[in-house]
Amino acid sequence: MAKRSSLSIRIVEGKNLPAKDITGSSDPYCIVKVDNEPIIRTATVWKTLCPFWGEEYQVHLPPTFHSVAFYVMDEDALSRDDVIGKVCLTRDTLAAHPKGFSGWAHLTEVDPDEEVQGEIHLRLEVVLGTRARRLRCSVLEARDLAPKDRNGASDPFVRVRYNGRTQETSIVKKSCYPRWNETFEFELEEGAAEALCVEAWDWDLVSRNDFLGKVAFNVQRLWAAQREEGWFRLQPDQSKSRREEGHLGSLQLEVRLRDETVLPSSCYQPLVQLLCREVKLGTQGPGQLISLIEETTSTECRQEVATTMLKLFLGQGLAKDFLDLLFQLELSRTSEANTLFRSNSLASKSMESFLKVAGMRYLHGVLGPIIDRVFEEKKYVELDPSKVEVKDVGCSGLHRPQTEAEVLEQSAQTVRAHLGALLSALGRSVRACPAVVRATFRQLFRRVRERFPSPQDENVPFIAVTSFLCLRFISPAILAPKLFHLRERHADARTSRTLLLLAKAVQNVGNMDTPASRAKEAWMEPLQPTVRQGVAQLKEFITKLVDIQEKDELDLQRALSLQAPPVKEGPLFIHRTKGKGPLTSSSFKKLHFSLTTEALSFAKTPISKCVNELNQWLSALRKVCINNTGLLGSYHPGIFRGDKWSCCHQRDKTDLGCDKTRSWVTLQEWNDPLDHDLEAQLIYRHLLGVEAALREKHRQLSTGLEAGRGPTGPGEAPGDPLVELLQVLGDLQEAHRSSSAGSPPSEPSRILELQT
């Protein structure tokens, strides 16, 4: 049994932010921290006080985390970025909203005295002195203190206060992992209500010292305990009064905490085996559990259910069979070809998730160079005459203003060039398309052609493929490349318009240039020759895609299985530690890394085009290392330079690490390794939520059976798989109850309590 926590985070937008630049605007972005550890940085939205981000993240983290904080920052090119404000949500707040926290939250001021982090190692004793009892406080060390100085470290010392007396440790220069090993004693009076306060400070020569955090103890409880030693989390100083909320603007967030108790694999085997049996039987199965699950799943959670079930069957090697079953179910209830896969059915949502899970790397290879070109060129592109702004275009080669006709013609040429490049890249990518994606599209093509065999529907199988490939995969990635990890930043207004027009053109090609799609926007007419040519290219591509034989697929899968697939690849900047003086561009070296489940390698030249931020690299490394049985519990975040560690100043090179190894806070991505037990637990939890609807469905099936055919044996009843499912759910409920009852009790509260 394991406890697992995850956060679903959507950073929507901000409003009424204060202006931080002399232009009367700001360049806002968000940083997300879990217990003061930065894990997410959104893109910067330039020159606005009402930014829209719309970025979504899934974060896996330990169940013991305390809070998640959202900092809104203003990016500056020439100086340190300004902090606008923050929103902090505690674990208790999130736990009080089972369906998630959603809405606007006022930004609050970021007080340096509240921005604390790290832990301090203390030993506290009540000892018998010559005349009275004395309170002995040994300040041993601290770790992960907040860096307060420009050099990225602090000069920490500790101040111990009790009963009007104050004593201080020595100052440790340039370290966030100081070691003092100093002891202080205070005369202890029985019955004294005074608290013992241990404060960490950063020493500054020319300005006031910076507060690093404090720990306060109830001396009466310490008197009873006599001795206590451990690591204590530093707390902020919240004694200051706050200004009225709202003057810093607001942030719209959607945050949902999910805690799961994952049972051993054997507990989920009956559920997994039952669902796999139903998928293998397909539409021939008597109960069609997959169809019943779709019927009882609400629209709000259909995407989540689709993604979870897809990952489960992907891990069982049945993703193609699962999707094929959904295709058949959708086709069986579709009478009009033009409505096929147009709704948000389980089939549509599952196929969307499938393409993101299995085809994201393929998408980057095909679409990445075109997106990069659009971002780099930053051309003014507009096809709608009512929206042309000639003044924004600039002059022609003869230094005269361009006419509206010239702007429209050049814009059409630009979009045609991008569309042509994309279709050409797509046409060359048949073999690069993942084998499981090709096999799934082949099955989809075959099923649709069987369902609509008439000559007037000859384009329907092609449109079925393009409805997913173009309309639900490539076009959304063109519209929002940041959300598909194609770019590090959101597009500016000019680039966004180019991407929108290109996405519209791709949609017209995907719709096979139907009259309905042409009639919507007549001003797209200049693209029609390229669109018609693109339709032919796309049909040729799909024909080749679905024509590869099973033997070719197996040979390709065997070839791919011999190589460890990359987990992450892309550029990283490495700091040259031998450089002296202020950090400059020459202090860094750019190398291109590739991380697989087997090795971390690098080269001087790009291995592939992929944009990665530092937190994504840390997340990927943690995922690869999480099953390492030899993973160290602590490490040195610095380097051994000269005769000591730069982080904690220890002079023994083999000394144990001074900071804890953080191996649990990771970002979820589409190419994450599958977690079969967690996927099964998520499916169980969903089915448990719709159990009442499933029982009602069983009652209806049983009533209809008795009225129509009379009693039959249990093996012949259409409701039998449903009965099995309900029994499996009951067994899992009992397993969860037993695990809760038999699990070790939560850690008792320590005798030594923090003073509140």
TrEMBL record:
Any single GO BP term: intracellular signal transduction
Keywords: GTPase activation, Metal-binding, Repeat, Zinc, Zinc-finger
Ras-GAP domain sequence ranges: 301-511
GO molecular function (one): zinc ion binding
Entries under SMART domains matching the protein: BTK (SM00107), C2 (SM00239), RasGAP (SM00323)
InterPro entries, per database record: C2_dom, C2_domain_sf, PH-like_dom_sf, Ras_GTPase, RasGAP_CS, RasGAP_dom, Rho_GTPase_activation_prot, Znf_Btk_motif
Region (Disordered): 702-721, 733-756
Record keyword Zinc present: yes
Keyword Membrane carried by entry: no
Domain of life from the UniProt record: Eukaryota
Domain C2: 1-105, 116-232
Entry protein name: Ras GTPase-activating protein 4B
Organism: Moschus moschiferus
